[in-house]
Every structure is written in C-alpha cells, then in structure tokens.
Amino acid sequence: MAVPDQESVSPARASQLAANLASVRRRVDEACVAAGRSPADVALLPVTKFFPAADVLALIEAGATEFGESREPEAGRKAEDVRTATGRTDLRFHMIGQLQRNKAKSVARWADRVHSVDSLKLAQTLDRATGVALDNGDRAAALEVLIQVGLDDDEAKGRGGVAESDLAGLAESIAELPNLVLCGLMVIAPLHGSADRWMAESARIHRDFVAQYPEARELSAGMSGDLEIAVQHGSTCVRVGTAIMGDRPLISP
Ligand SMILES: *Cc1c(COP(=O)(O)O)cnc(C)c1O
C-alpha cells in the first residue's frame, strides 16, 4: 500500500491509536501480573502492515518506538519514510512475516530484527545481504533474528516455520553466521485447537532451546486474540495489529 499524501492523521485517528496502544499495553501488563511476571519483561510490538506511515508517526507520538511489518516493498518504504520524517535513530523495525529470499536484500537495509527465519538458505541470504548493507553504510549493526518454529506442520501448509526436529541444526548453523545475531524463537499459534495447548507447546520448545542458547531468550508469541495466553506461557514479545490499528483492509496478498 502506498503512503498517502497527507503526512499526518486526523486528531480523532491519533487519539484512537493512542488509546488503543495504551489499552493493549494494559492488557499485557495485567497478563504479566496474573502470570507473576514483570511487565518490563514483555515487549508490545505494534504491527502496522497495511497501514500508512502517518499512522506510524501517530504511534510514535504516543510513545511507541518499535514496529512490526510483514510485506515488501510496503515495509521498506514505510520504514524509510518514517525515519526521514522523524529524523530519529532510535526507531526499530521488525520483519515478522514470511520472507522470500529475493526480498532479503531490501529487508537487510531496513529491518533491525527478522522474526521469521525458517531455513538455512534464508539465513545465509540474510547474512550476506546484511554484510553488504553494513559495508554500504545502509545499516550500523548486525541483523537480529528469531527462528520461526512451526507448531502444526506449518511449513507443509505454507505458513512457514521450521519443524521442531530441525530447530537445533538450524540454530547451530545460524550461530556461525557473522552478520546475524540469534535472539530467540517466534511462533504463531494455529487457529484450530486450543491456543493454550499451542502456547504450552511453544513454551516447552523455548525452554529446551534456551537451555542450549542462554543468550537467545526471546519468545515472540501472541497476537491480538491470544496475547494473554502467550504471556502466561512465557512470551517476551507480543505482536499486535488489529487491537491497536483496527481491522486491516481486505486486500489479497
Ligand atoms: C499481522 C500479524 C500479526 C498481528 O496480528 P493481529 O491478529 O492483527 O494482532 C502478528 N504476527 C504476524 C506474523 C502477523 O503477520
């Protein structure tokens, strides 16, 4: 989706976004308290895919500094527009959606973190692209990555995600790549079945993983509909679109 001509949203939209952001943050905080966790341990990542740069600017006014995006070239353009408009260097953009290798080059220019690494080939391509972006001065730091774990034959169903049985091998290879920093895991709970069961499964996989990679503690899990359950099961980052932004326009991918 193109960035609209207008550079700022209406006051009504701005206050709606600020109110939604605060109310989702409250949901996260309450879920933390209920789970006996510190609210400081769970990040709220607003997901702004399909929404214009002006909405991102309004969220920044409301205090947000990190954003999740999932589609190219929309994401790269928006990140650049927002960085240019604000002149800020503390904003962070996360690629959370399934990523084709031919998009790695552009993603390596704007993304601080990729949540959706699910193959060695993709990791190697991102590593090389990040090296080029570093050499060209397009980025200043290594690329943080999470391995997306498929919970339900997701790979076979086209949703991405590595099978649990392949996780250890992939992590070992990624840890060797010079321009990537392995930070943890990402999961998407399948829509069918019990979210509680999927998140418990994620928590178990994450515990085993962290035992091997104590530095890679992130668990990106939970969205608008299941963030409380995800927090209960150890999520360190909930990715929330609809509950903050409203319904996404129905555009086929
Ligand atoms: C769009 C998206 C989200 C946000 O989903 P909501 O249900 O709108 O909160 C989270 N994670 C990923 C990977 C997404 O693509």
From TrEMBL:
| Key words, A-Z | Pyridoxal phosphate
Q: Which residues carry this modification: N6-(pyridoxal phosphate)lysine?
A: K49
Alanine racemase N-terminal domain mapped to chain residues: 38-249
- Tell me where the signal peptide lies: none
> Which residues are listed as membrane-spanning?
none
Q: What PROSITE patterns would the database entry show? A: UPF0001
**Pfam families registered for this protein in UniProt:** Ala_racemase_N
- Annotated InterPro entries: Ala_racemase_N (IPR001608), PLP-binding_barrel (IPR029066), PyrdxlP_homeostasis (IPR011078)
Q: What is the recorded function of this protein according to its Swiss-Prot or TrEMBL entry?
A: Pyridoxal 5'-phosphate (PLP)-binding protein, which is involved in PLP homeostasis.
Record-stated family: Belongs to the pyridoxal phosphate-binding protein YggS/PROSC family.
* Protein name per UniProt: Pyridoxal phosphate homeostasis protein
